[in-house]
Amino acid sequence: MSTITIQKVNFKVFRFNNIDDYLPYYESYTLDVTSEDVVLDILNKIKWEHDGSFSYRRSCRHGICGACAIKVNGRSTLACKESMSTMIEYFGTDLTIEPLSTKRAIKDLIIDKSDFWEKHESVKPYVNAKIDETPSCENLISPEDADALNEADLCIQCGSCHYACPVTEINDDFFGPAAFVSAYRFEADVRDEDSDRLIAVNDEKQGVWDCVKCFECAEVCPKDINPIEKITSLHQMAFQRGVAKNNVATRHAVGFKDSIVRNGVLDEGGLVLYSEGPSIIKHIPVALKMFKHGKIVPPWAIVKSDNIGEIKILAQSSSTAKF
Amino acid sequence: MEKLRYALFTGCTAKQSTPEQLMSTYAVAKKLNIELVELSEASCCGASHLQDYDDFLSLVLNARNIAYAEKHRLTMVTICNTCQLNTAMTKHRLDSDSNLKDRVNKELKEVNLEYKGTSNVVHFLYAIIDDIGLEKITSLVKTPLSQFNIAPFYGCHNIRPSELQNRSHKIKENPYRPTSLDNLIIACGGKNVDYEEKNKCCGFHVELQAPKTASILTGNAIAGAMDGNADWMVTPCPLCHLKLDTQTKHASTAIGREVSMPVLHMQQMLGLALGCPQEELGMKHHLTKVNFI
């Protein structure tokens, strides 16, 4: 059995009461942290031993209810699941405890999560199907069909990914990774017959095409759901089910294949033209500067991949998508 | 110093919009006694966008690229974070799923190729740290960059998802507190600038479909480096470089603040420190003037 070690850790804890406080402030504590502690133990220690007014959400303590997600040194963390040893390994012994979103703070670590729930609801997170209201047996699906959910059904709506996503931070319309995971979970369900959900999550205003592919969501998910993988699947589903609209975002994805088939390598200028169409005009000022600095290779000067015949054969035989 | 040999997957950008990156890679390789065997047969990695459209085709094409490195019996070195992500992700998926590997190899057989899984795929930054070592690099520095505060900009696809990325190299990179590029700056004699945006996204991948989002992220990154009192930024990713170097006007408009700063590729920074001739580093290709040399 390994021995329990204890070390001193300095905490800076976000404090704010939106009724009394004009600005938030930080309270400092130096506490003994054991190798057995999870982050929630520290929050409890502060509340129970130092300041009973310190507020945060918690309930199950088993990584199931999703209530206790907070940020440690800017990283979304499910407090009851994350061990302090990992936090110390990541960030050292000076730790800052903050709510998932400081701008949405109500009281200390408790935030107004209404934006999260509104987006969750927007993707219709339920099986939408005409069902027999008096069924004679259960409506079972096969293990293979259940596997297609790809663990998206394990999401506990903790909001860790939602408030780690840089796009959610700056674009109020963007659904965010958690809502996309929910959308995927029901789009992948064989029983579901909804016809609007996939269209809504592929919409240019709020949909998957604004994902910057930074993998912050995959890094923070306490249930290892890998939200960006589901986002990628939603892109693919839009093409597979013929609901992908013809717009700059979809043409940008399809344009890669077009370019690869012709050259093996990408024709960067050609891709922008293929994606933007007449709107390419807005890129001309920067493009001219780039051309002047030797940063644009005209289509006729692009050096194609060697053995391009192989690439053409593979593109023909391996293609699985249509647009 | 022992000669190193790598198979170089240049990616598309280094051959088109960032020629200075390819030039400086070769210049630095010469100084470090590295032989680069260019994979001229390689196709585009799909850049995470082909993957949104046709996942299986992207796997087959990336497996073909790796198969050429395997034919040379060499480690594949990438010089673009997004090439690294998509190639390493393909490798991981094929190595951990024999059915998928069989399906991909069935396609490759048509062109007399086979993906075996025998070559590692690693970004140049990590290859030189692992195989040459920072101490050795420090000892080779001819012109220490001691008068500069340099802001590292890591780029998402070298550090996240960390579970995948840390399979490629020996040093364990913490995506929340990455150190490799900071340590390379220090090895070159420079002062590394710590700032919040150094491990954040530059917005490159949505530049066409969500230009405002992309510009805000670019603006925030440059502003963070400026507020950290950096003289210039350095990045291992040509896509980040394109955003930070060529899109300053849109970035400034988006965040309501004039932001601009010289941005070097990691190879250019290393080249300066190792005493490569300046014409081999291609600074004239930058849109934001490299004003300190």
Key traits:
heterodimer, A: 323 residues, alpha+beta, Ubiquitin-like (UB roll), Fumarate Reductase Iron-sulfur Protein, Chain B, domain 2, 3 domains, five-stranded mixed sheet, two-stranded antiparallel ribbon, 13 helices, 37% helix, globular, B: 293 residues, alpha/beta, Glutathione S-transferase Yfyf (Class Pi), Chain A, domain 2, Rossmann fold, 2 domains, four-stranded parallel sheet, 14 helices, 46% helix
Approximately how much beta-strand content do the residues of chain A carry? 5-15%
- Kindly state the mean pLDDT of chain B as a whole number? 97
Strand order of the largest sheet of chain A: 2-1-5-3-4
Residue ranges of chain A: pLDDT <50 for 5 or more in a row? none
CATH architecture of the largest domain in chain A: Orthogonal Bundle
CATH class of the largest domain in chain A: Mainly Alpha
Radius of gyration of chain A: 25 Å
Q: Would you tell me the structural class of the helices and strands of chain B? A: alpha/beta
Tally of contiguous helical segments of chain A: 13
**Which structural category fits the helices and strands of chain A?**
alpha+beta
Order of helical and strand elements of chain A: EEHEEHEEEHHHHHHHHHHH
Second rung of CATH, namely the architecture of the largest domain in chain B? 3-Layer(aba) Sandwich
The topology string of helices and strands of chain B comes to: EHEHHEHHEHHEHHHEHEHHEH
Largest interface: A-B, 70 and 63 residues
CATH T-level topology of the largest domain in chain A = Fumarate Reductase Iron-sulfur Protein, Chain B, domain 2
Helix content of chain B: 40-55%
